[in-house]
Known about the structure:
The protein is α+β, with helices and mostly antiparallel strands and about 230 residues long.
Amino acid sequence: xxxxxxxxxxxxNASLCVRLALEELRLPYETVLVDRGAAAQRSPRYLAxxxxxxxxxxxxxxxxxxxxxxxxxxxxxxxxALIPKPDASGxxxxxxxxxxxxxxxxxxxxxxxxxxxxxxxxxxxxxxxxRDRLLDMLxxxxxxxxxxxxxxxxxxxxxxxxxxxxxxxQIYGGRPxxxxxxxxxxxxxxxxxxxxxxxVQRCAIAEGLGATPFSAPSLxxxxxxxxx
Length: 228
């Protein structure tokens, strides 16, 4: 019997995207809390797993692995679900959107949340411009072609990634109420379908995310650890 996967996580962090995929795939896994309150992500022990000092890490048969999109793609390809197979129709555009989420949307959120990590004097103008860019990205998704996964009932690694980021966009932007999904009916419908899934509900309970974590999110109340 193979050992279960070990997910190093913090509540309402990027590890949530991986946890969603694990739950959707019904894979056995253990969680290891990374205590952000104690800066455990920068401890020598954690840096030995991920030298970037970022969450998440997953430990599997090939050792520790980091980078959210890479973990999601590995899980999907290893278990033959959540993304078209390499030789299947639709694979190219699925991978395109996965990397757009990882390389375009997610870094913009990090810039909004942690501007001091990028420039010495974080300004309100920088954060406002980043908010504007994120709204442009939501508008792009709302009308995107070749993004059938946004309208599908079945989960994908892209939906596992996007759902949490829609949540974070709405509640961690530094200005309450600056963004909601009402002007984006396609994305709102996506969020409501996603959070109705049993896998999402299990994750929401485990991390204290509330009943509507994507469509109308509130600040988390995790049973352990600290969120973003």
